[in-house]
Amino acid sequence: MKDDTRHAPDPLITGAEIARLAGVTRAAVSNWRRRYDDFPAPAGGGPTSPLFNLADVQAWLAKQRKGHEVSDEVRLWQSLRGVFGDDIIQGLTAVARLLTDGPPSPRLGAEITRQALEISRSTSKAELMDALTERFLDATRRAGSDQLSSPRTVRAVQHFTGPIPETATILDPACGIGTLLLSLGPADGPTRYGQEIDASMADFARLRARLSGRTRTEVRAGDSLRDDKWPRLKADLVVCDPPVAWPDWGREDLLLDARWELGTPSRAESELAWLQHAYAHTAPGGTTVLVMPASVAYRKAGRRIRAELVRRGILTQVVALPAGTATSHALPIHLWILVRPDGEAAQTVRMVDLTANGPDDPLSPRPDQVVDIPLIDLLDDTVDLTPGAHIGSINRDYLVEYAALRNQLQEQLRALDALLPRLASGGGPGTLDTASVSIADLARAGLVEYTAGEPVSVSEHLDADYLHGFLVSPTNRRRSTSSTGTFRTDTRGSRIPQMGIEAQRRYGAAFRALQEVEACTRRLTQLSQQATDLAREGLANGALNPPAEED
């Protein structure tokens, strides 16, 4: 093979990567770009995501005495980014193949090949690959991708799966780069099988397994739902973090597939197709762990399949994980844990609600975060498997809560009676229109100024509540409405009666009391709705009873 002595092009890096190089925030890098005329100009990318030449940035950081020396591993990563760009997975695969004594890829070039081999002489090949993979996962998280399982998701699956024996067989039918598959069980123990639709990721997962010493691992490329590469495999543990809301999962081609023993999933329920595919590969007594969007627990389209899961005693646990566990969004996700019965099926479903916790908090639930629900209690019209919907009602003291709401309602009623102002007879409608002044005139006189588009008093001769009360009066509201019925926010045409400051204050006090009455009324409405909703729920579920006699 002819030696390729060409130098790799200077790698390009993002502003976020400059921040990591210099040990500062991205905001600091943005500030440098504005303040320093000699900061390197973008060498690629677009206006919203510029890319900079790594060598130029390093020279500038050294000149300004900012940042620190770049490690060899970081230099290798940046070189890979410069050559492979968005196709970085191909670069990582090429390095992994090189480290497993494979032939050097022509795309790597002589310089990157030299860098990788040189680093591998001073550190283990597995450690180098782990470091590069971590940078890839970090870049994926920053980009908001949901293509790969996040470290927090992996931690949760490890926790709720528990210890895995060395003799176990593990399958991940949507394994990506092997993040979940390779993280479970001891390194030199279980036999692992994976499948991934992206051939590059499947290749990288195989090489990662080899470098990490997990030699009993086999990963095949292909679409698991349409082209199952392990049709006869029954595993002790099946784990899966499936693609979310995948509309073209093959329903029309798979309507009569034997895997749909719980019911044929709808086109919108791809996650339940993955669930049944994983369950079909689970051996008797084996466990299935699925990472699910929270909405799968209650969507109408999946009700029948959820009911079958519960009715047959297959579903044993649902765990609602904290917001921030997933990579690409802040929404909570669930773990669904299934067991293929090998004898007596489960009689309850354990519900665990960790949504009030932080994403890095301990995963062991407190007593008030877990409850075992009898199967019959889940088989209603909705078959809602959201843990919070059941834990909240189980731990709720309906009687105490209802009594507290009644007391608050009574206090608000008494407050309303005290707030409603006592008013006397006036001179009749229209009597205040004769001597009035416009807001425009008050503004010209310097008595009002506009704040957030609204006139406010800036003079001790104009009471603020008096001004506001007349501004929102029906007469002035009509003046602020055009002939087409469109409300205008321009209040310059509104008019305020002319009267002395003492009279203004009396009117202002009355208007202020009316505002407080309105606030009290809104609170009454809110409390009334809460009380009636709670009472109806408590009466319907048996937590409350109507008294036999009036107390």
Write the layout of secondary structure elements.
Elements: E1 12-13, H1 15-22, H2 26-35, E2 44-45, E3 50-53, H3 54-64, H4 72-84, H5 88-99, H6 109-122, H7 125-142, H8 151-161, E4 169-172, E5 191-196, H9 199-211, E6 217-221, E7 235-240, H10 270-280, E8 282-293, H11 303-311, E9 315-320, E10 333-339, E11 348-353, E12 370-374, H12 375-378, H13 387-394, H14 398-419, E13 436-438, H15 439-444, E14 448-451, E15 454-457, H16 464-471, H17 474-479, E16 495-497, H18 501-541
Parallel strand pairs: 4-5, 4-7, 5-6, 7-8, 9-11
Antiparallel strand pairs: 1-3, 2-3, 8-10, 9-10, 11-12, 13-16, 14-15
Helix pairs in contact: 1-2, 4-5, 4-6, 5-7, 5-9, 14-18, 16-18
Please explain how this structure is put together.
- The chain has 551 residues and is an alpha/beta fold.
- It contains 18 helices and 16 strands.
- Strands 6-5-4-7-8-10-9-11-12 form a 9-stranded mixed sheet, sandwiched between helices. Strands 1-3-2 form a 3-stranded antiparallel sheet. It has a two-stranded antiparallel ribbon with strand order 13-16.
- The longest helix is centred in the C-terminal third of the chain and has 41 residues, at 501-541.
- The radius of gyration is 34 Å and the shape is flat.
